[in-house]
Specification:
Three copies of one chain form a homotrimer. Chain A is of the alpha/beta class. Chain A is built from five helices and 40 strands. Chain A has an eleven-stranded mixed beta sheet. Chain A has a ten-stranded parallel beta sheet with strand order 8-11-14-17-20-25-28-31-34-37, with no helix packed on it. Chain A has a ten-stranded parallel beta sheet with strand order 9-12-15-18-23-26-29-32-35-38, with no helix packed on it.
Chain lengths: 344, 344, 344
């Protein structure tokens, strides 16, 4: 199932210019350092351009001519973009879109299934669910009552969408993700916790990606929302009533507590946690393992638990291991100053 | 599928008294700040009571009469409780309890299925499993050999219960949760790890709620236990042999290592971690991202990693960013004191 | 389903010597402190050997004769190993290996199913998948196109293996685990993120164990790899291109970011996080909740976030709560020194 193409064919696919042997056959992709003669590689800038001379790759996508190299070069404007485009063209996707509805799926006659929809074996589509044109629901997925999956969106195997969830167009949800489970809200009465019905839903925009085993709770009264283009990695928790803006990217195991509002283009490192009712501005960057609460202004970079400006944190974190020695030094100073006092 | 009722009807349902227009039609619930004319809202105390004057809600549940407001008021003893009660009455639950066993489920003839049980499509019920009266096992659930699900308990889609697990009455388990997987225990021999058979099981009490994708390991010899009324949020890890008391509530992504014993009414913030063999007393509160080990006494509030009293932590955390400046000040003092010494 | 054997039978199974009553009937295993007359227990060394005198256990596996005890003793070289061996012999495993292929599974005619394979109900085996001799694929598992499950490996219910994944021999994967989902890699263009096709796969060695709801991403170009004998607990995230060596053990909720390389025999505590492109040497120990980046040399023990040597961290962490008082002391010193200056 490997690809097989000549250097000339690659150049044609990416709109590039060949320097060197254009008839070599390539059967794989690899980074410069591990590439073999049968691999295509790429170099975007320094220090990678320097590595082109010593690579074993059969051909390298480069942004400019390089002198004194033995490998074939394919010159294109943006080698990285060219590689991403090639990979998409050359490799089949991770899902099957055969526009068939498995006989082994259970699809409610009250559900709306538009044209070109693929449904895998053992999927369950509940009444009033809507699967829009061209979407793919793979094996073992559960699409709850009244839930809508947008055009050309893909649910990988074992995704659960509770009732009343709405997924936009061209979004991707990975295996084990759970969207629309009720949030963690209880009324305390006589020492017991009575679950508060979570009657809001979840709205997920277009071109959103949701990682494996990530959980997104439904809203209490209003909807939990995730904006267009936002990407969530694996094992992330998004609490009820949370609103996340557009084009955000959160790394694995991030946790967002209930009712927090997050702006656009926000980035978060792995295992970061945001307290409930926080307000995170546009363009904010949150470091890995940070613990954020309250307000963070547009464009700020925060890290640490509790979180602070990254410049302050970096210096404080560097000073932290010196704390025991600092204690000793202060003790010594106190002794010296006291002795000084006695002397006087 | 929206509700539709008049102010007078709401008042009757909650046992309240109307002030203002009792014939207005309401079709939704919303918080005071985002409510529309067609919404019912509620105000429990300050500062919410002050917001009633400016809300657009068609009617507001309040604990007392408020003068000078244009919206309809419904006076009840406890507006919050009244809302929770209304939501439960007005909205259908998130599961279907139609007391039918799907033809598409695989139910062992050796399992015991009591009256009024609902089993969804593609569920698997293994031999000797017991589904007690009125419980609901939704699509794709796996109920292992000898496992018992208590009366009126609900398993949302894609729950896995390994063999020999016992779930109490009126408990709720959300999608993707795994109960009874073997704990992380190995015998090291000749540099290899041999898995120690985990022959204990898991006992879960009545009215427990277990969040989406949460994992609870079975015990090694004795059982892992979770007490009545305890609520676990999403993506929580509970290790083998752990004993958790009653009426606890742990937020998302908390991790409890093996053999730890936790009392009653313990609260934990998100991403908190408890080391193995720890002992956490009754009524303890553990802050978000805390790292706890050893013993924590009844009623203590701890936070930080390693965890300490929250009052100590708060002041230390506030001082932390000043560390680099403190280092400088001590250096300056040392210089001054040395110079002083020379002078003398 | 409890075991039932006499002390003499146990002694024979473990190759031990009985001291005391060899005809007692035992029906369970328990630790010394909670054992009943019908239980077998074990003591490996201090302080357990001292507890043998007061235990209620019917019999105790011990490494040496103990005087003045009323319980039966079974003397063996290694009581712990003996118990683990007994548990494996006496209790049935958590899976069913009946070498049958459920009529309710969907197995592609293009898949290769070797002899002695067990496939549970509602499992999906895609084209070109290979299930090697004796492996067990339980209910609701998804085995993607071209994916291989090695000899005698076990997939518990609800495991998802994306396409092109390779699992070695005698490995165990627990419920809800997802292997081979595409990593978190995007090309940013005009403010949008375009997913980079992840065309590498995942290679998992022999005797690996993967916990419930753990996620392992496929590689971008090359494969993500997990070495022989490595054990991953529940809810762990392993990013794309990560290489983990042999005989490692990571506790629950650990997160490994993309392209990180980890040596052999590495241990990690719960909730530890490793940044992307880190290099972790052989035999490294990473403490719970640590945040590691960059290089860690062979055999180092690190903890803290950011991580440092555990000896440095321990002292710094102990000094941390004294920070506010330290600030005061420095302020007092500054005042004294200034006054001293004035005096002069």
């Amino acid at each position: 199932m490997n690809p097989r193409f000549t250097v000339a064919q690659v150049a044609q696919l990416v709109g590039g210019r060949v320097i060197g042997d254009s008839e070599k056959v390539l059967t794989g992709f690899a980074p410069l350092e591990s590439a073999k003669e049968s691999d295509l590689s790429f170099a975007t800038g320094d220090p990678y351009l320097g590595m082109v001379k010593s690579t074993n790759a059969g051909a390298v996508l480069v942004p400019q001519e390089i002198e004194g190299v033995s490998t074939s070069l394919i010159v294109v404007d943006n080698p990285y973009e060219a590689v991403v485009g090639l990979l998409s063209q050359v490799y089949p996707p991770l899902y099957v879109k055969d526009e068939r509805i498995s006989r082994m799926a259970q699809v409610s006659p009250l559900a709306t299934i538009e044209e070109g929809v693929t449904i895998g074996p053992f999927a369950v589509i509940e009444p009033y669910a809507v699967l829009k044109r061209g979407c793919v629901v793979m094996a073992h997925c559960y699409v709850g009552e009244g839930t809508e999956v947008g055009e050309d969106s893909i649910l990988h195997p074992q995704v659960t969408l509770y009732k009343g969830v709405k997924i936009g167009k061209r979004s991707i949800i990975h295996s084990g993700a759970v969207v629309g489970s009720p949030g963690f809200g209880y009324l305390e009465k006589d020492g017991k916790r009575i679950p508060i019905p979570q009657v809001g839903a979840v709205e997920i925009g277009d071109e959103v990606e949701i990682g494996a085993n990530t959980c997104i709770d439904r809203g209490t009264l209003a909807n939990t929302k995730i904006g267009r283009g936002t990407k969530l990695d694996n094992l992330i928790q998004v609490g009820h009533n949370v609103i996340i803006g557009e084009d955000c990217a959160f790394a694995g195991q991030v946790g967002i507590s209930g009712s927090t509002v997050i702006g656009n283009k926000v980035l978060m490192g792995g295992q970061a946690g945001i307290a409930d009712h926080a307000k995170i501005g546009n363009g904010v960057m949150v470091g890995a393992q940070a613990g954020v609460s309250g307000k963070v202004k547009d464009g700020e970079i925060v890290i640490g638990s509790p979180a602070m400006s990254h410049t302050v944190w970096r210096r404080a974190a560097m000073a932290f291991p010196k704390l025991p020695e600092l204690l000793k030094r202060v003790r010594r100073l106190e002794k010296l100053v006291k002795e000084g006092e006695k002397d006087e």
